From TrEMBL:
Gene3D superfamilies: 6.10.140.1170, Aldolase class I (3.20.20.70). This is Lysine 2,3-aminomutase. SUPFAM superfamilies: Radical SAM enzymes. The keyword Zinc-finger does not apply. GO terms for molecular function: 4 iron, 4 sulfur cluster binding. InterPro entries: Aldolase_TIM (IPR013785), Lys_aminomutase/Glu_NH3_mut (IPR003739), rSAM_sf (IPR058240). It comes from Nocardioides mesophilus. The keyword rRNA-binding does not apply. Keywords: 4Fe-4S, Iron, Iron-sulfur, Metal-binding. The lineage of its organism: Bacteria, Bacillati, Actinomycetota, Actinomycetes, Propionibacteriales.
Length: 492
C-alpha cells in the first residue's frame, strides 16, 4: 500500500486509516502528575519510585481519601463511598498511590468540587473505589450469585490448591494483595472482612500449606502447569517466594509456571526493586536450564493503568529472563466493555509495555456485581469487534468462567436462552470432584446473564421466581456459614 502525499508534506490517510471502526494510533505512555492532588503536592520523584513510600501511603479509608483529594471532590462522593463500604463492598479499600494516580489523570481546573464528575466517570475508580450509586438497585446481585462463585474451595486438594483442570492447578499461596479490586472473584477469602462479607481464613500455617501443595504436585505427575497466585505474589516476601519456586522447579512434571501479580500494574515499584529483580533472574535462569516456561500474569483493565513505570517493570521482568508477561483483564461494564476501550488497552499493553493481551474474563457472579457484569451476547459482540486489529497471538480471548466447568471461550456455548439469560455449557474433562461422576461430561452447566439486560418477559420471570429469596444480608450470612462448614469438611 503506497502512502499518498498531499501538498505541504502531509500524508493523506489511506483506506487502512480512515473510516475504520477503530482508529488505531500509537500513543505515548504518560505518568500523570501526582502533585495535582493536594495531599501529594510535595511528593518527590524519589518518594514515588520507592516501594516503601507507595505501601505506606496506600489509601485504606475515606478519611485518607479526603486528605488526598480535599475539597476537589464534593462531600456527596465521599458519602456515596462510605455507604458502599457499609452496605455493599465485598472488598476492603486498599489502593496504592500508583493506581490512585491513574484515576481522573488529566488536569482539572482548581476549585472546590472540580474533580467530582471526573472521579464519578473514571473507569479505574469505578472498579477500585466503587460507590453505592454505581451499583444497581433493581438487581444488585444475581439470585445465583455466590461467594465462591467458581467453587474453587470445593476443588481444593490441599488448603489453597485448586485442582480443576486435568493438567494444571492454582496455588493460592497467600490471601492478601497490595491492592484490592472491588470485583475480586476471590472475595470469599482475599483481603480483610467488610461489614458485608466475613472472610474465610486459611487454617494451616503458610509453611505447612506450601509443603502440602508441593507434596501433592510431587505425587501427581499429570499436573504440568502451576499458577502461583493468591492474592498477589507481590505480597509474599521474596525469599519465601523464591524458596517455593525453587522447590517447584525441582518437580520433574512441572513444565509451566505463571506468577500471578496485579502489582505489576498497581505497584510496579515492587518488581523494580534490585533484590526482587535479582531474585527473578536467579529463578528464571534455573527455569531456562530445566526447560520450564516461567511467565508473569498480570491484571490491567484499562489503558490508563499502563504508564511508563509499568512498562519499565514489565521490561525488567523480561530482561530478568521471564518468557513472557501476559495480561488477564476482567470485562467490566463502565470500565472497559466497549470495543475501543478494549483495543486501547491491548495496544497500550503491547506497544507500550510489551505485555501480551491474553484473556478478558467475564466478571464472575459474586454478590453485588450486577452493575459490572455484561451478558454473554455482549461478550460475543465484543470478541467480534476486537478481531483483526491485533496480531493473532496478541488477540485476547474473551472467556466465561463457568461454575464447575472452567474457562470457556464465549462462542463455545451449547445453548442459550436469551429471554431468561441462561447459557448452557459443556466440558471435555472432569474436575477433581467428579472423578466418579458418570454424567460430568454429558451435563449442561449454566451461566446467567445480568437480569437487567434481559427483555421484559425475562425480567418478569426472574421477579416471579426469585421473589421468595432471603433478603441479601441473610442469604450472604447463610452462605458464610455454609462456606465455613465446607472448608472444615474439606480439611477434615
Ligand atoms: S489483585 Fe487479584 S486477587 Fe487481589 S483483589 Fe484484585 S482481583 Fe482479587
Amino acid at each position: 500500500m503506497s502512502i499518498q502525499t498531499v501538498s505541504g508534506g502531509m500524508t493523506a490517510p489511506t483506506w487502512a486509516e480512515s473510516g475504520q471502526p477503530y482508529p488505531y494510533a500509537r500513543t505515548e505512555l504518560v505518568e500523570p502528575d501526582w502533585t495535582r492532588f493536594p495531599g501529594w503536592k510535595d511528593v518527590t520523584a524519589e518518594d514515588w519510585a520507592s516501594v516503601q513510600w507507595q505501601r505506606a501511603h496506600c489509601v485504606k479509608n475515606v478519611k485518607q481519601l479526603r486528605t488526598l483529594w480535599g475539597d476537589l471532590v464534593e462531600e456527596r462522593f465521599y458519602e456515596d463511598l462510605e455507604r458502599d463500604q457499609r452496605e455493599r463492598a465485598t472488598m476492603s479499600m486498599l489502593v496504592p498511590p500508583q493506581m490512585m494516580n491513574t484515576m481522573a489523570p488529566r488536569d482539572v481546573p482548581a476549585g472546590p468540587g472540580s474533580l467530582t464528575e471526573a472521579m464519578y466517570a473514571d473507569p479505574i475508580r469505578r472498579y477500585m473505589l466503587p460507590v453505592f450509586s454505581d451499583r444497581r438497585t433493581d438487581w444488585p446481585s444475581h439470585p445465583h450469585a455466590t461467594r465462591d462463585s467458581l467453587h474453587e474451595h470445593d476443588m481444593w486438594v490441599a488448603e489453597g490448591l485448586t485442582h480443576r483442570y486435568p493438567t494444571k492447578v492454582l496455588a493460592e499461596l497467600l490471601p492478601t494483595c497490595p491492592q484490592y479490586c472491588g470485583h475480586c472473584t476471590r472475595m470469599d477469602l482475599v483481603g480483610n472482612s467488610t461489614p458485608v462479607i466475613d472472610k474465610l481464613k486459611f487454617l494451616g500455617k503458610p509453611v505447612d500449606r506450601h509443603a502440602e501443595m508441593l507434596d501433592y504436585l510431587r505425587r501427581t505427575p499429570s499436573v504440568r502447569d502451576v499458577v502461583v497466585s493468591g492474592g498477589d505474589v507481590a505480597n509474599m516476601p521474596w525469599p519465601r517466594l523464591e524458596e517455593f519456586l525453587t522447590q517447584l522447579l525441582e518437580i520433574e512434571n512441572i513444565r509451566d509456571i505463571r506468577l500471578a501479580t496485579k502489582a505489576l500494574i498497581g505497584l510496579p515499584q515492587h518488581w523494580l526493586q534490585d533484590d526482587v529483580r535479582a531474585g527473578v533472574e536467579r529463578v528464571a535462569r534455573v527455569a531456562r536450564q530445566r526447560g520450564v516456561s516461567l511467565a508473569m500474569h498480570t491484571h490491567a483493565n484499562h489503558a490508563n493503568s499502563i504508564t511508563p513505570i509499568v512498562a519499565e517493570a514489565s521490561r525488567a521482568m523480561l530482561d530478568a529472563g521471564l518468557r513472557d508477561v501476559r495480561n488477564q483483564g476482567v470485562l467490566l461494564a463502565g470500565v472497559n466493555a466497549d470495543p475501543n476501550s478494549l483495543l486501547d488497552l491491548c495496544f497500550a499493553l503491547l506497544d507500550g509495555a510489551q505485555i501480551m493481551p491474553y484473556y478478558f474474563y467475564m466478571c464472575d457472579m459474586i454478590p453485588f456485581s450486577e452493575h459490572w457484569r455484561v451478558s454473554v451476547a455482549d461478550a460475543q459482540r465484543l470478541q467480534h469487534h476486537v478481531m483483526g486489529y491485533l496480531p493473532g497471538f496478541a488477540t485476547p480471548r474473551i472467556v466465561c468462567d463457568v461454575p464447575f466447568v472452567g474457562k470457556r471461550w464465549v462462542h463455545q456455548l451449547a445453548d442459550y436462552d436469551r429471554e431468561l439469560g441462561i447459557s448452557y455449557w459443556t466440558k471435555n474433562y472432569r474436575t477433581s470432584i467428579e472423578s466418579t461422576d458418570p454424567e460430568a461430561l454429558q451435563r449442561h452447566y449454566e451461566y446467567y446473564d445480568p437480569i437487567h439486560t434481559l427483555p421484559e418477559a425475562g425480567q418478569q420471570w426472574w421477579r416471579q421466581h426469585s421473589g421468595d429469596n432471603l433478603v441479601e444480608a441473610e442469604r450472604l450470612a447463610a452462605e458464610s456459614r455454609r462456606a465455613a462448614e465446607q472448608q472444615a469438611l474439606t480439611l477434615a
